[in-house]
Amino acid sequence: MSSPNTTAPRHIRLTSHSGGTGAPSLLWGAANPAVRGPVVGTTTSREHRNVIGTHSGSYSVYRALAVAAGALSRSHKADLTNTSPTDAIGPYPQWSDPERIVSLDPWGAMVADVFAEELKAGVDIRPTIAVTKAHVILPEVIEAVQKGRLKPDGKMLLPSGAAMVTKAAIEPVWYLPGVAKRFGCTETDLRRVLFEETGGMYPELVTRGDLEVFLPPIGGQTIYIFGSPRDLANPEVELTARVHDECNGSDVFGSDICTCRPYLTHAIEECIRGAQPREAGGRGGVGLIAYSRKEGRALGEVTKFLVYNARKRQVGGDTADQYFARTECVAGVQDMRFQELMPDVLHWLGVRKIHRLVSMSNMKYDAITQSGIEVGERVNIPDELIPADARVEMDAKMAAGYFTPGEVPDARKLKETKGRELE
Ligand SMILES: [Zn+2]
User: Fold this and answer.
1) Domain limits at 375?
2) Which residue has the higher pLDDT, 389 or 132?
């Protein structure tokens, strides 16, 4: 393995000026993939690049480290043999509406098929979406089987509690004019702020107005489908769905200050039951979990833990009436998740109706319905699944407009709802 110090060019290649005329054209929202053109974020043949930024989201930085450490050749080209999707998704009519999907590439899983010619001609086109199959085994689902809430059907849910899923990983691909429109700002302002707030990381944002697509260095999404992916696009088939934002502390480590994991596993149970055949006590539909990497309301985990300390140490202790104020003190805002881009993944899947939305968030509900997807029933988290210390979060959110079929806590109740002490 050679060191990049010996193979890398001595001069720095700026990407802020047009690299030439070799780049395939990219017409966002075109129905025909040949007209739409591939997303090319390669760092090797820069004359082919037609986007700002590069692939793999935040992991692009690790790729740079691998090159710097001499572990990865910068000319490595992915061998995509046998990597094609296990299930075909789309194309759906939503794919050809340039305003319906602005934060992912709907053709991202199919590049080997639809851009076969360009690939053959040597253009380094990478999939931004991968679709595979898996068994998921969760203690909460095993418990649901043991307690008789779920009945194994031998196909979708095994007696062991393992559930069969189709899953997809999705990297962010932003069509800047569309993203700006979603957030009600001008494209010029969006480009400038993205440039400045990343410490000037992508000069093309301000120098290359001709490049309209940006591969941002952020986390993407993972979806889990219970049942047939095709059924997601059929409004006649009952869809149970949850859109969930990452919370490592609860989702993975079982921290009890919030309801994230209990809500997620409750939703998975609902999705399994929703997709199981009626003979097995199911609803004969399809289930979907869309998981977004937006740790700690997209404020990050450091901010989140600072807020926990501020909440627990404030005079009077951790009370529901101060829940949002404490986040705002540390972060400057209550929430940076901005659900505006979230429905894109649903449109990629062809979803037109969610019969049962397993979420109480008014922000998610509003974003989904405003994007043109009909929502039927809203399913809340059962009270017995809310950890005692998470009551503060739950009451504060319900008072702020989260959906609840029960009573909305008033100002007096919010002062009374108190969390555990720090020590
Ligand atoms: Zn959480």
Assistant:
1) 131-416
2) 132
